[in-house]
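Minutes, project check-in
Item: structure for the 443-residue chain
Input as provided by the requester:
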Amino acid sequence: MPPQIDASPTKDFFISILVRDVLLNAAIADLVDNSIDGALRISQETYEGLFVRVNFNGESFSIEDNCGGIPSEIAIHYAFRFGRPADMPKTKGSVGQFGVGMKRSLFKIGKTFNIVSIAESSDFILEVDVDDWRKQVDANGKEIWAFDFKELHEDVNHDIRDCGTSITVTDLHESIAAEFRTENFKLRLIDDLRAKHQESLAKGLVIEVNEYTLTHDEAKLLSSSEIKPIRQTKNFEFEDQPTVHVDIYAGVVKDSDPDKSGWYISCNGRMILRADKTRVTGWDEEFENVKIPKAHGQFARFRGYVRFACDNADLLPWNTTKSGLDTESTVYQAVKPEMILAMRQVIDFLNKVDAEIDSEDSLLTEAIRRAGEVRLQELPERTLFDFPEPQPSKPKPKENRISYTVPSERADLAKELLGVTKLKEVGERTFDYFMQMEADESA
């Protein structure tokens, strides 16, 4: 029998491919995702009392949480694998589903990392020098892909309140260290994490970046007896798989802000698209003769939200970096037409609001002013966007201009006799006088 061909990857190649297409802020967001998965294992409903603290400077990076730690069984068999084995226990509603986030992030940031984890029945310390690990081979010269614990304790008891994970990265890559030193990166990371984890923040999770505590703005839409936004619920069933639950919201907000208008799409609470105004979410698209225009300033009040949720995160329509949609996903292809139909209704309303600018009518503008903003989860389900229908305006009577020229002194005398100051008034008065004397008499 001829020898087998060796098709195994090399560590250098694998790491370079792994980190090439992930941005630094996305890599850090992946680490936060892992903490949120830990929080999910503690509670599906509330994250009150749980925190994630991110700190960095030109010398080191760290992330610490009290979200339950990594059980030794998960660490040994799954957490540090390059990819997620099929038999790995799934966290319901997971946001870190692809099995590459933590390793990719650590390799992206630096060459040495230390992980200290305390779970309820185990704890461990792992220290890795990436350059040394790359060189490790077995007796046959094959690369060793395993990591060795520095310490591991099993069959112990820890209070859940003391359980969590701390990761420290040192020997930073030069470009990463330079980015960490800039205030601009800190501000961008804060904005990015705040946007990506709005729903986790709303559930009580505290996220800090260099001791700055992230705030959050809950998604809301205008709702009143006059203006009623859309809320639709869809469920998609797959054979032998959990249900994919989808909520679609579409409506308007009070303040006109072009930068914030568009669609917001999340998967299991993790925002993957924010204020999108491209064909990905139906702008400049057509479905069954329903045409959506390109995004325009007059649609600056539009807000649309699509929230996908599933116990099996593999069924959700996101890419591996959680930075965009998998537009070929069966679920997303089924949802997008619903988004287009909902958006068309809101755009029709905003077109009518815009038309009021050049008219004496202000019915819709006043309806917007009177409406209050309501949290998405408090909105009732409805498929139609309701708003007051303006009454058709009465046609203005046709008008004609009449003009004639007279000597200035006669015009001045006419103004004096009529007690007016403008020539327009002279013309109107003399015309009225003529009609009164001639037309009324003939009538």
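Outcome recorded: The radius of gyration is 32 Å.
No further action items on this chain.
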